[in-house]
């Protein structure tokens, strides 16, 4: 491909001795010709540092005391020299054409202020789950993208964005101990940056089942904190639909809490409760037709045949996330 901008793959690393080597190697094996890899060792006390050092001058390495994921990303970006920044967590993997496809998508943009979010297959303890990807099957239209983003994070952490975007919106917020990437995308949206979707999976996103309920509760708390900040910070920029949605959702629990509760009720045969929680989740994400169908099936279809098989699929999907 013609010479393009330099891309810096930034990898924050904390206690990731089992996976960081795979992440680094995947970044070094990109088909795109101008890639640098920057790793921030964020106070890691395991053998992550020794593994990173084994790559020698193939990497730029930043060392700091443990400050959290947001500051580790910011430190890596500060040490990077690329015009474009590609995010990669220490437990994820880039497939060889990841950067090349993202750059091609970015170069075909129709507006200067744009970045690319990339799809990925998910990985569990049993390996790759090819039918599960991180981006929604259908992406919202550009005019409704901001509202859709407020409803749920529809941007992959495996994104490639201009350094100028990072500098304009102030990088990742250290106060966000979780969902720091979601907060970043929301602030970018309100700063006028357009999201371009690369829907072909070009990476592997690792899911683990450790402390899922605790993480969900914490993420729910930070989702509400994020939406509350948007309501206060951007009040004069909100559309009527965005303002109405935020006012309603700030009085409710988050979608993930409803989904977790609905799945648990379904496994235990409490169909009425499951239907109510699926309906509540669907009301927060109106464009997700599948949630409305689930709620309707539970209300009107007896628990036999196809519904039984669906319940079994829900159970298997929950197991595969672990």
UniProtKB/TrEMBL annotation:
UniProt keyword annotation of Chaperone present: no
UniProt keyword terms in alphabetical order: Transferase
Molecular function via GO: transferase activity
Positions of the Glycosyltransferase 2-like domain: 8-169
SUPFAM superfamilies: Nucleotide-diphospho-sugar transferases
Domain of life: Bacteria
Residue ranges the record marks as coiled coil: none
Any Pfam family hit: Glycos_transf_2
Protein name: Putative glycosyltransferase
Organism for this UniProt entry: Mobilicoccus pelagius NBRC 104925
């Amino acid at each position: 491909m013609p010479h393009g901008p330099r891309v810096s793959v930034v990898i924050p690393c904390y206690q990731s001795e089992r996976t960081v080597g795979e992440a680094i190697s995947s970044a070094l094996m990109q088909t795109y010709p101008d890639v640098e890899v920057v790793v921030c060792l964020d106070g890691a006390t395991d053998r992550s540092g020794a593994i990173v050092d084994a790559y020698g001058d193939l990497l730029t390495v930043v060392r700091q005391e443990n400050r959290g994921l947001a500051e580790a990303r910011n430190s890596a970006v500060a040490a990077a020299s690329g015009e474009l920044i590609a995010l990669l967590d220490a437990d994820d993997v880039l497939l060889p054409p990841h950067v090349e496809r993202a750059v091609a998508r970015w170069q075909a943009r129709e507006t200067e202020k744009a970045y690319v979010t990339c799809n990925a297959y998910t990985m569990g303890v049993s390996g790759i789950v090819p039918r599960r990807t991180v981006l929604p099957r259908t992406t919202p239209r550009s005019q409704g993208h901001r509202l859709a983003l407020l409803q749920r994070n529809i941007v992959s952490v495996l994104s490639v964005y201009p350094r100028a975007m990072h500098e304009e919106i102030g990088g990742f917020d250290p106060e966000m101990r979780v969902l720091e990437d979601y907060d970043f995308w929301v602030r970018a949206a309100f700063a006028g940056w357009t999201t371009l979707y690369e829907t072909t999976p070009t990476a592997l996103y690792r899911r683990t089942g450790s402390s899922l309920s605790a993480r969900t509760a914490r993420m729910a708390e930070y989702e509400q904190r994020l939406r509350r900040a948007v309501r206060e910070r951007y009040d004069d920029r909100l559309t009527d639909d965005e303002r109405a949605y935020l006012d309603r959702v700030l009085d409710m629990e988050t979608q993930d809490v409803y989904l977790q509760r609905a799945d648990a009720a379904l496994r235990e045969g409490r169909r009425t409760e499951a239907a109510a929680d699926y309906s509540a989740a669907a009301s927060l994400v109106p464009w997700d037709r599948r949630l409305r169908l689930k709620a309707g099936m539970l209300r009107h279809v007896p628990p036999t045949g196809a519904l039984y098989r669906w319940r079994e699929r829900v159970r298997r999907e929950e197991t595969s996330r672990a």
